[in-house]
Structure formats: structure tokens, C-alpha cells
Input
Amino acid sequence: MPVNKADITLWVEEYSDSMYNWTLTRVSDPLIAEDLVQETFLSAVNAIHTFKEESNPKTWLFSILKNKIADHYRKQFKLETVNESKLSGEKDTDFFSRYFLPDNHWKKEYDLEEWTMPENELLDNTEFIEVLEKCLKKLNKKSMLAIQYKYLDEKDGKIICQELGITPSNFWQLLHRAKIQLRDCLNSNWFNK
Amino acid sequence: MKNLMQVFMLSCRQASELVEKKLLVGLTLKEKIQLKVHTSVCKICTQYEIQSTKIDNLFKKHFSITAFEENLNKSGSNNNLKTKIINALNK
Output
């Protein structure tokens, strides 16, 4: 029996809360989160003929939602790229001189101790997640969006670059700066406080 | 006179950048060797590679929507949203 509009209304009742809560963790603005969930259901109605009866509605809806979130990140990323060209951000030389000596070796204070806690323990710890999110927010907007986009889906690196409109080398250079900061932040706020 | 090795060795800045390239798109054979040679003599970069990879894995698991689906915590109902959506669908 094909899915009809009444069924979709049931799906709204059943799944919109978890869809909204998920989206809120990824976009922080409640109004944007609501819009994205609403757009997901509107798209679902238009694409209902592609929904196979034996499929799981939750999985199907979440995959549409994931694409909506990805679209949102992509738009924001492109906006930030335009904004960035207008402002003068921190020069590369200034950034790297915080972490590296003139001969480009690490400064002594970045000789960090091992991080011993295993990953599954960390991800189950809500305090750690808070620290992780806080460190992420410390990055510049463009880097934060790039990272969120990269890990939202398990796509190939080259494809991610094409979708964001950035060359792979610019992307890994952006990630390089971001990771250096994240590593420092996580180290001082969690692992070797 | 500079040690010949030093002329060809990567700096830490270059090595750490290669780690990010590796995690994004992978390295050429030459780059793999360069990175290996550097980390074999540089304790800091060895640790950087391990920790950067760890951050990668944490992000992969934390941000992925599949991870969320498995850990669904009901943290509240948004009834206004439900009404809004149902109205929009019935237009």
C-alpha cells in the first residue's frame, strides 16, 4: 500500500522531535533548525513516490534532513568565503609563529603528553562533548563550517572539496590550522588540564 | 655546512600539514616516505599525528547522523513545530 499524506502527518508526530533535536545540535539557531526540519517534510511529500515500502521512514527522513543540513552549511561556507575576502584575517605567518619556531619546528610547549582515554569512553562522556563543542566554536566560522560539513557524511575528501568550492590543498591547509588549534584546546581543557 | 639530511627533511610545520593531507585525500608515495622519516625522528610530530587522527575519529563518530540515530535521547517535544509543519503540508 503506497504511503499517503495521512501517513506523513503521523511521521511528523513521531519523528519531528528527534529530527529537530539533532538539527539543533548541528546548527544552534532554533529557527534555522525548525526551518530545516520543515523543509525536510515538504521535500519528503514531493519525493514520496521514491520511498520504498520496506524502507525505514526514520532513516529515509534523516537522510533528507542530512542533505538539507549539508545545503545549509554549503551556503554558509560560501558566504563566509566572500566575507573573508573583505576582512583582513590573521595572516598565516602570525598564526604559525604562535606554534612554530622560525625554523618551523614546534615550540617546546606543543610537545604534548599522550592522550590515553579511549574514544568510546570520551564520546559517552557529556562533559567531554561539551568541551569538544566549545573548542570547535573557538575556530573561525569558515573552519567550523568546513569541519561540520566534512564529518556530517562519510564522503570522499575530493568530493567534499568540489561541493564546497575549495581546492583540496586549500582545504587541508584550512584543516591544518584548525587541527592545531583544536589539539591545543582539547589538550589544555581536557586531556592534560 | 648544513647536514644533507636536513636539507631534505621536512620541517614540523610541513610534516603536520602532510598529516592533514593524509587524512583528507591521502599521500603520494614520496610524501608517505617523507612523513615517515620525519616522525621517526620527531617525537612531537609523532604525537601530533596520533592526536590529530584521534580528533578525526571523534568528529566522525560524534557528527555522523547515524551515530545520533543510535543514541536517540528524547530531550523534549516541539509541539509548535509539529503544528507548523502539518499546516504547511495541508496547504
